[in-house]
Amino acid sequence: MTNLYQAALPLFSSDSRISQLMIPITAQLGSEKYLSFVSGAILRHVFLIELVKVPTIDSTKFRTRWFEQLNGDQRYCSFDECLEIAIDLISKLDQWLQTPEHRETLELFFKHPQLPYEAPIDYLAKPDISDKTTRIHQLGNVAWTYTETILRTLKLRKFLTQGETSPDAKFFKLVLSDKIKIKTYLTDRALTGNFKTNREKRWETHPHSVQFANRRTCMEIEYVLIEQLCTFDGFPATSRQALEQEKILFNTQPVFQCPITLIPMSFEKFEAELTTRTHGKSSFQVGHLNPLKLDDPASATSGHTADNISWISDDGNRIQGSKSLDSIRKLLKQIADNYQKLKLH
Known about the structure:
The chain is mainly alpha-helical. It has 12 helices and 6 strands. Strands 1-2 form a two-stranded antiparallel ribbon. It has a two-stranded antiparallel sheet with strand order 3-4. A two-stranded antiparallel ribbon has the order 5-6. The longest helix has 18 residues. The protein is globular. The protein starts with a helix and ends with a helix.
């Protein structure tokens, strides 16, 4: 990315609009941070996309937004319009940073990223499912983004991964960089259907794919998964109290249970498993309460959203399969009633 920035610098410098806009931002952030900001945020999120390779669907590769694979795709954007988007973002950043919470958000993204080149840039909206032509990546739809949950999530990352505040910073770094990052920010491996995916960023897959989610939604999911983890049976009480005192975590939930088996999830067992893992085996998984392939727009808890995500035991995941949470609970209740009627134990 640094090499790309160096190659693109003459273009930016030769545009009088950009060179004038760079002055107040550089003054605010400093030259080193500004270099990181330009290379990581503007170039990465405006001009580039990490596409899944076709037809193999086995890995991802960086491409420009005008790459031939995107011809006719709603994620396409010409170079000239990408440049206009970049200028628009730069022109609005100085004012955006005047709000203390915005400035803190940007700083925390720099210092505690979960993904390479992470930044508070997001889409304002995605095309309706019936809209097959409106492009998602266009001028006016790419913007600096702030929500209270984004800032709270970043503060929670910082708290849990710093030795001076965290009961086990090394462990929490592992949790965040492994299970939570993958299940929150990256698409599942889906080799059938109209939109095939395999570990792209959620907001870079096709906007009509059930795997799609914008950045702020993904960050809401990260927060929910950490919040649930902090109520696992045996989670250090002093750590939870410290999080509540810092007003990072607001949690009145009882001990967290697998949503299918209703068996409490053990923090001690989770920690032991994560630090001494067996390849291909996990008793603690992350799943959608209503599987994505249900694709039910009428359901308030469908899709990749914070309301539809949860830690789940391996037993619960096997039992649920592709059924919705409600349907599997009804089935389990019917099975329990049948056992009771037949007096089976």
